Amino acid sequence: MSAARRGPAIRPRSRGDLRRARRPRAHSCWDHLYAAPLWPLHGANLGTLARTCDAVGACLTVPRFPWVPEALARGNTLRKPLCTHWTGDPLGWLVRQRERGVRIVGVELAEESVRLGDLPVAREPTVVVLGHEQSGIPPEALDLLDACVEIPMVGTGASLNVAVAGSLVLYRLAGLA
């Protein structure tokens, strides 16, 4: 193809361009979108989710397991404080969110699940509940969900890594995907 037929050259945005397009200051709590990996198994997933939360403007809610602070510190490659909420009682925390009128969406394979592509952008405060990497969301927590979202897969695996699945759903709910 000749140079005359090609479109305009692609110019990557500079760090300054990106900074000007984002929020003007750090937040203490956006109180709109939460990632809630309440039953984590692997610390690496928490670090990835923390980075995604920063990218989409979400807060992270995690359980008070002894290893969680170190996993978050290791995974926080931004080296800036993250909006992190702590809970010693995941089910109680979910109940309190429901009482506040927050929409609770679980990432789970269920008959009633909405496909990721059909999931609407969050227009109200929303919690994304992520279950245990092996056993999913506990049955007693499923009753607290307003909706479930499923990520369609073509391959042979049954599900995605918790951090990847959570990141996809957060981007969709934030209106960035």
From TrEMBL:
Any Pfam family the entry gives: SpoU_methylase
Record's keyword annotation contains Aminoacyl-tRNA synthetase: no
GO molecular function: RNA binding; RNA methyltransferase activity
GO BP term, example: methylation
Residue ranges constituting the tRNA/rRNA methyltransferase SpoU type domain according to the UniProt record: 44-171
Region (Disordered): 1-20
Keywords: Methyltransferase, Transferase
Gene3D superfamilies in the record: 3.40.1280.10
Keyword Repeat in record: no
Recorded superkingdom: Bacteria
Transmembrane portions of the chain: none
Entry-linked PANTHER family: RRNA METHYLTRANSFERASE 3 (PTHR43191), RRNA METHYLTRANSFERASE 3, MITOCHONDRIAL (PTHR43191:SF2)
Protein name: TrmH family RNA methyltransferase
Species in which this protein is naturally found: Streptomyces triticagri
